[in-house]
């Protein structure tokens, strides 16, 4: 399991500084969040990559159309990963994944807002296979209904059993990390935003959560 830190910020200087700080502490995946990209454009992706040249940089585009173009743009601006919405047209997902593969961009299908995430993932895999699916509970849903971690992990386990990598996102804190580890539930990427970014010491919080996952890996979970 790896931690991916989502930089859903509106301050590019803070985002770049925080990315550099966390990557120097061992962060392997750093996300140029959707708000950051909307505020500053694709140059935000390049700035994060420059700050973290050895980490994998995720451009969280949440592409809904023109899949080929957006995949190519993500790669041209230095992204190692790009995201496309699982709720969009299957043709867009196909174009995004295939263009990404051609350009050397890894692709993740974000299942945000999809009622039957597992069924939709299987439908997509019938046409094209991305590098990862992300099971994602959005902030607006969290604020009203909370986070169904068990539901996310059950779907993740089933998808991983079908040979595809899976990430989970949506209000993940140390409590959820402990539950994942103690329950021996395996996912490939745990995406964390506010729990690290808004902490008084993001470096320390990342180190603590990352050490928890490292201990789990060393113990064979």
Query: What is the CATH third-level topology name?
Result: TIM Barrel
From the N-terminal CA to the C-terminal CA, the straight-line distance is 9 Å
Tally of contiguous helical segments: 11
* Total strand segments: 8
CATH class: Alpha Beta
| Gross geometry | globular
Poorly predicted ranges (pLDDT <50, ≥5 residues)? Answer: 140-147
Describe this structure in words.
Mean pLDDT is 91; it is low at 140-147. The chain has one domain (2-218): Aldolase class I (TIM Barrel), CATH 3.20.20.70. The protein starts with a strand and ends with a helix. The chain has 221 residues and is an alpha/beta fold. Helix 6 (117-125) packs parallel to helix 8 (149-161). It has an eight-stranded parallel barrel with strand order 1-2-3-4-5-6-7-8, surrounded by seven helices. It is built from eleven helices and eight strands. The protein has helices at 12-24, 34-40, 43-51, 67-76, 90-103, 117-125, 139-145, 149-161, 174-182, 194-197, 202-218; strands at 2-7, 29-32, 56-63, 81-85, 106-110, 132-136, 165-169, 189-192. Strand 4 (81-85), helix 5 (90-103) and strand 5 form a beta-alpha-beta unit.
């Amino acid at each position: 399991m790896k931690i991916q830190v989502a930089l859903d910020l509106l301050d590019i200087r803070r985002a770049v500084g925080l990315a550099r700080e966390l990557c120097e502490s061992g962060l392997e995946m750093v996300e140029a969040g959707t708000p950051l990209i909307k505020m500053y454009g694709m140059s935000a992706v390049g700035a994060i990559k420059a700050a973290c040249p050895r980490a994998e940089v995720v451009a969280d585009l949440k592409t809904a159309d023109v899949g080929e173009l957006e995949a190519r743009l993500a790669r041209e601006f230095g992204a190692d990963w790009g995201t496309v919405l699982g709720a969009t047209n299957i043709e867009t997902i196909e174009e995004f994944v295939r263009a990404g593969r051609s350009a050397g961009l890894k692709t993740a299908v974000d299942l945000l807002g999809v009622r039957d995430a597992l069924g939709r993932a299987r439908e997509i895999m019938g046409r094209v296979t991305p590098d990862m699916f992300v099971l994602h509970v959005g902030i607006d849903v969290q604020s009203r209904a909370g986070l169904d971690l068990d539901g996310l992990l059950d779907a993740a386990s089933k998808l991983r059993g079908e040979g595809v990598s899976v990430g989970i996102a949506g209000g993940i804190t140390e409590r959820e990390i402990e539950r994942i580890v103690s329950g021996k539930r395996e996912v490939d990427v745990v995406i964390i935003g506010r729990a690290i970014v808004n902490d008084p010491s993001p470096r320390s919080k990342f180190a603590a959560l990352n050490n928890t996952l490292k201990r789990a890996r060393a113990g064979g979970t």
